[in-house]
Amino acid sequence: MLQKFTKRQLKEVKYQQDQKAMQELAKDDPDAIIVYLPKEEAIISSEYGDDFYYGFKTAQQFINWRLNDCLKGDLNALADEMGYDTVSSNHQDFLADNREYHDNLEQFVLDSYSSERVGDLYDE
After folding, report:
1. How many separate domains does the chain show?
2. How far is the C-alpha of 24 from the C-alpha of 67, rounded, in Å?
């Protein structure tokens, strides 16, 4: 007969599995980015993006997901989510930064979201 676990025990097992996966990712792709969102965490990894539930191969895929799937195409909501909600109501600063970061969207994500490179998290 299988042993029954409490919800707390199951949550701890999942947490430990997630930590192990992140440590392995840090070794294999230290430049991968973990993005802390209000309800979930997302991973941007050119090598392993498809291996995670909220995983993306590129920063562009991640931004498209946030804009189109999560925020229903509302560019103002995306700007607000990325921290441009207090600077100017028409989001001119967001548009200017979007143009400036165009060739480096990973840095745009790192600078605009609560996020960090996985290699920095698990620096051994």
Report:
1. 1
2. 29
